[in-house]
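My current task is to audit a protein record that another person submitted. Please read both lines and tell me whether the tokens look consistent with the sequence. Do not assume that whoever made the record got everything right. I have pasted the whole thing underneath without changing anything:

===
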Amino acid sequence: MDGVRDDGIGVWRVSRSGRIGGYVLAVGPACGALSAWWGALFHPDAANAESAGAATAFALFFALFAWWVLLRVRLELTTDVIVMVNPWGTQRLPWSRVSAVTLGNWGARFHTTDGFTYTAYALSDLAGGSRQDDRFAEVKRVSDAQLRDGQPL
């Protein structure tokens, strides 16, 4: 677990190594773009400016990608609702609609009473950077307690 908010039970994000990788993925190309602009500043011509512009676009793409896929992804368990922030969207699921929690290939799967399944990507092997079942055990323990008696541990 990565933290607890005021009204929350817990927050899970990608692992520390995943977050570091995300920051490197964002900052590495940004340093390259800064270097290209530094070169264009001291050797101003159209080719250097074009190269710096392309490096900036490249850096912005990687920064946005890293933020969207690794750095913003999280699972928040609060006393009232489950919030899953995934690369493809954010889902808010009330505990009253959850019937079971299982481990899937892409993370924790929250099964609802109406037959739908929601996946929390923050607990996947790819996002976690650590053993998925170890991270899931904590979510499962908290979820089972919440589903059993409606009270967090």
